[in-house]
Amino acid sequence: MRSRIAIFASGSGSNAEQIMLHFKQHAQIEVVLILSNNVNAFVLERAKKFNVPSQVFNRQQFKETGEVLNWLLGEKITHIVLAGFMWLMPSSIVQIYPNKIINIHPALLPKFGGKGMFGHHVHEAVKASGEKETGITIHLVNEKYDEGKILFQASCTVEKNDSSDQIAAKVHELEYKYYPDQIEKWIGK
Ligand code: GRF
Predict the structure, then answer these.
(1) Which residues have CB under 6 Å of ligand 1?
(2) Can the peptide bond before residue 98 be classed as cis, meaning omega within 30 degrees of 0?
């Protein structure tokens, strides 16, 4: 059976783009839907470029009315990929997709995770802490922020003079290099 991915993203979507690119010609795995809570998210433009349909939703549709879940079921989505998605997955979705939701976090969990630790906040916290390395963590998603089973980590160095933007750039490189491949491995299991 072909696997059908929905990607949730709230912002730029550069990871979503790498994932769409990776699976464009894939025989068994297809990105069929981009979902965003942000009508201005650049990920929606990227979806158009790849001819992938997209849907924008609000908190009520996501957490209360079950509309987003119905879209997923209607599209026969088999796997959910979070790529810079800012809201916590409601338990209604997590329960229907056990071990079928994956996320990437831009640091080496369990450090620098949890509520409020997203985007530039993570890289600023890493810089402020004086850590000598940071990286990425690819993990399964449960009902708590950043606490699902860790599937993969990769690290990079943090130099004393690196700005948080420079740290972010190094981390993004790791994300592009590993996330699409790790998604493919996870789906193949
Ligand atoms: C990435 O660093 C990802 O790890 C984090 O949010 C960022 C999203 O970047 N969860 P983009 O939207 O994929 O460019």
Answers:
(1) 9, 11-16, 83-84, 104-106, 119, 175
(2) no
> pLDDT for 83-104, tens place per residue?
999 999 999 999 999 999 999 9
Backbone angles phi, psi at 5, to 5 degrees: -95, 140
User: Count of alpha carbons within 13 Å of 32, Cβ hemisphere only?
Assistant: 17
- Is the Cβ–Cβ distance between 38 and 26 less than 8 Å? no
Assess whether 121 carries a catalytic annotation: no
Of the listed 79, 105, 123, 139, which one is catalytic? 105
Residues facing residue 103 across a β-bridge? 82, 139
Give residue-wise pLDDT tens across range 153-184: 999 999 999 999 999 999 999 999 999 999 99
Q: For strands 133-140 and 101-105, give the pairing.
A: antiparallel
106 touches 171 (CB < 8 A): yes
CA distances from 152 to 32, 86, 174, 185 (A): 25, 21, 12, 11
Amino acid identity for residue 94 in this structure: V
Cα first-last separation, the chain: 13
* Residue whose CA lies nearest to ligand 1 atom number 10: 84
